[in-house]
TrEMBL record:
<dbReference type="InterPro" id="IPR027417">
    <property type="entry name" value="P-loop_NTPase"/>
</dbReference>
<protein>
    <submittedName>
        <fullName>Chromosome partitioning protein ParA</fullName>
    </submittedName>
</protein>
<dbReference type="Pfam" id="PF01656">
    <property type="entry name" value="CbiA"/>
</dbReference>
<feature type="domain" description="CobQ/CobB/MinD/ParA nucleotide binding">
    <location>
        <begin position="4"/>
        <end position="125"/>
    </location>
</feature>
<dbReference type="InterPro" id="IPR002586">
    <property type="entry name" value="CobQ/CobB/MinD/ParA_Nub-bd_dom"/>
</dbReference>
<dbReference type="InterPro" id="IPR050678">
    <property type="entry name" value="DNA_Partitioning_ATPase"/>
</dbReference>
Length: 213
């Protein structure tokens, strides 16, 4: 019954996009999945309102209540908890990291975004957990940019997640419609990337991949 935290100190890095796509994948695979939205802006919760189908359900929690909220969800039979966090908020990120079995750190592979990883890396080191950086919004044919970004991530003592999300219209168009990319366009590259992410998260946490979606 894993808890996956999505953290990054940078706004716009793709935390909410990643949290909602991972949670939707979990729900479609047949797992009782919940998103805990700790962002005061409550974007993930708004997305769930647009959907209205509780697939996945999104609950909100202030950081001080996060551990208890997650505990209660797991005790009630939830099989996968995904925690979405706000940017520029140390307390939220720290609590999420402490509560998580797996930490995913989305980052665009560009200089200012990579610089912001330093704060997250320090926090992970302090708590004693590994962070997996998922390169998000990767432009096409960005081989050199990616190689540089990976080197920077490794120099910070973080791991590079083998799954990446390209810069794809399906991600933002789906989110704006209260959908995930796999619902919006199951044949899209974005949908393939989400399915790849699901497999990787299952392997990393020891979950069964479950139903195809
Ligand atoms: N891989 C991607 N391709 C295209 N648009 C993306 C991608 N990831 C995120 N976005 C868009 O970028 C914006 C910021 O993403 P969001 O998930 O809200 O970031 P955060 O939660 O870290 O602030 C949103 O409009 C989202 O739709
Ligand atoms: Mg967000």
């Amino acid at each position: 019954m894993p808890t996956v935290a999505i953290v990054s100190q940078k706004g716009g890095s793709g935390k909410t996009t990643l949290a909602l796509h991972l949670a939707t994948a979990g729900a479609y695979s047949g797992k009782k999945t919940i998103v805990v939205d700790t962002d005061p802006q409550a974007t993930a919760a708004a997305w769930a309102d647009w959907r209205g189908d509780f697939l996945p359900e999104v609950v909100t929690s202030p950081p001080a209540r996060l551990a208890r909220t997650v505990e209660k969800q797991l005790a009630s039979g939830v099989e996968l908890v995904v925690i979405d966090t706000p940017p520029h908020a140390d307390a939220s990120a720290r609590e999420a990291i402490k509560t998580a079995d797996l930490v995913l750190v989305p980052s665009r592979p560009r200089a200012f975004d990579l610089h912001a990883l330093e704060a997250t890396a320090e926090m992970l080191q302090f708590v004693g957990k590994d962070g997996n950086v998922l390169m998000n919004g990767v432009p096409a044919r960005a081989t050199r940019m990616l190689a540089d970004a990976k080197a920077k991530v490794e120099a910070l003592g973080l791991s590079v997640c083998p799954v990446m999300f390209g810069e794809r219209a399906a991600f933002h168009r789906a989110s704006g419609d209260g959908e995930s990319a796999t619902e919006f366009d199951p044949e899209s590259k974005a949908a393939d990337e989400v399915r790849e992410l699901w497999k990787w998260v299952c392997k990393a946490t020891g979950m069964k991949v479950g139903k195809k979606f």
